[in-house]
Each structure stands twice: as structure tokens, then as C-alpha cells.
Amino acid sequence: MFGSGRLANTGYLSILPVDQGIEHSAGASFAPNPAYFDPANIAKLALEGGCNAVASTLGVLGAVSRQYAHKIPFIMKFNHNEFISYPNSFDQIRFASVEQAFDMGAMGVGATIYFGSEESKRQLVEVSELFQQAHELGMFTVLWCYLRNSDFKTAGTDYHTAADMTGQANHLGVTIQADIIKQKLPETNGGFNALKFGKTHKAVYSDLTTDHPIDLTRYQVANCYMGRAGLINSGGASGGESDLQEAVKTAVINKRAGGTGLISGRKAFQRPMADGIALLNSIQNVYLADGVTIA
């Protein structure tokens, strides 16, 4: 994967993730650009957009594996939060096996754990076992390390993106040997103290972090075994005209903090393909730019 795409052999990654058809519903994800109901266009966007890899579902990647698996690395995500049960619940359940990913020619597998949720302990066990299977087959592993608990959001602050808490989620992720950690960009800090749970240390806030987004992200990297497991930050939802500016800003923060790259989906595929390719290339240009250095 590190030898593929425009960022080949730079040590950085640009990945297109398209699992939102399950996680957010196909209508919500693809109605803005119906061309992406077709899996071939997802693979085409990743390939022509110069990405190192495309991450998606068993169905999406399986539908185009004979045409694209030898052209761009596949990351098959084997668990999802389906979004049609009523009332909506939040639990990552297994949709596919590691063997299915291997058989279609995928190079890696991906999974999500909702740390902080009631189901997270079961998810930890399931994902750890499947990551072991993937490594035995010579595949790499990517973990979406997300926090999920309604009590993490208070009247004034949403601590789902707190640096101290997302950092601990990252640390649990690398403990089960995730090779790459996907995490949201931190927007705040001090979650453990504000919510009065868990354990932390005053030096986390006085010495290891500041309010600057680069420092907050650097703490996420530190929790990935000081970057031995790469941190890729997510691009987030599409906001329209501000998408390009936000994506480039996130890439600069990630790179300057010592991160490994960006994984951006909706900002790229919820617009015409040419515009999506241009956005992906703009992200990659940050990692190719010698003037953007580690802070």
C-alpha cells in the first residue's frame, strides 16, 4: 500500500473510504452524486485520484475485484453499524470474514470499534481475533478507533473528539496490533477530567498537549506507539464549498503532528468525479510538499 498511488514510497497515505452506504445509509451517502451507487466508480475515483488504497465493503469491493484488485490495494471492512434497525442502535457487527477479503485479493482489512460503548468489549475480542487471522495471511489491518457514548457529550462540549480520550482509544487499537489507526481530528481536550472517569495525569495537559490542533493531534500519534503504528485522520462530512479548505487544513495538521496521512471519503465522492479527484490530489500535495514539515 505504501508503494501505491501518488504518495508511493513517501511514507504517507491517502485512502478513499466508502462504507457510508451502510454506516449512514446509501440514500444519504450517494443521492448527492448517484454515480457512486455503482462500485466501479468508487474504485475508479480512488485509482484516478492517486490514492494508495480504497477501503469499502465486501459487496462493493467484491463486485469489482476482478477489474481493480490488481490495480489498487483493497481494504475490506468486515464490520459495520447498519442503519435501518428501529430504533437506531450503534453496534459494529460482523458482515464478512477475513477469508472473503483474502479471496477477492484485498491487501488489508479494516474494522471499527466504538470505544466507550456497552458493546466495545465484545468488539475488541472479535476484532482482535480477526486481525490475528489477517496477519497470518500476510494482510495489514486498519482500525477505525471511534468513541461512542451519549454521556461523552455534555451541554457545552462533545468529548468524542477529546485528545486525551481519543488518544487512549488509539492506544487500545495498537494493543490489538492494528497497523494503521484511523481517528477523528481532535477538537478539544480534558475529557477524562470533565466527565470524571478513567485515569489520566496532569502532565498530559501541562506538558504533552496545548490547545493547538497540531499538539492535540501529536498526542494521538504518541498513543500509536509514538507513530510506529501510523495515524491517519478522517476527512469528515462534506460541508460544501469549504470542503477543499478543510481537507487541506486537516492534512497539514496531520503531517505536522507526525501523522501518516488522511482518509477522506464524502468530501471526495459527494461531488463530480473530476472535482473529487482534484480534492484528493490537493490532500496528497500537502504530503508531497517539502515546505510542510513536522512541527
How would you portray this structure in words?
The chain is globular. The chain has helices spanning 20-30, 39-48, 58-68, 98-103, 120-136, 163-175, 191-195, 202-206, 213-222, 243-256, 266-269, 273-288; strands at residues 13-18, 53-56, 74-77, 79-80, 93-94, 108-115, 140-147, 180-183, 230-234, 261-263. The chain contains twelve helices and ten strands. The two termini are 26 Å apart. Strand 6 (108-115), helix 5 (120-136) and strand 7 form a beta-alpha-beta unit. The protein is an alpha/beta fold and 295 residues long. The chain has an eight-stranded parallel beta barrel with strand order 1-2-3-6-7-8-9-10, surrounded by six helices. A two-stranded antiparallel ribbon has the order 4-5.
Protein topology:
Elements lengths: L12 E6 L1 H11 L8 H10 L4 E4 L1 H11 L5 E4 L1 E2 L12 E2 L3 H6 L4 E8 L4 H17 L3 E8 L15 H13 L4 E4 L7 H5 L6 H5 L6 H10 L7 E5 L8 H14 L4 E3 L2 H4 L3 H16 L7
Parallel strand pairs: 1-2, 1-10, 2-3, 3-6, 6-7, 7-8, 8-9, 9-10
Antiparallel strand pairs: 4-5
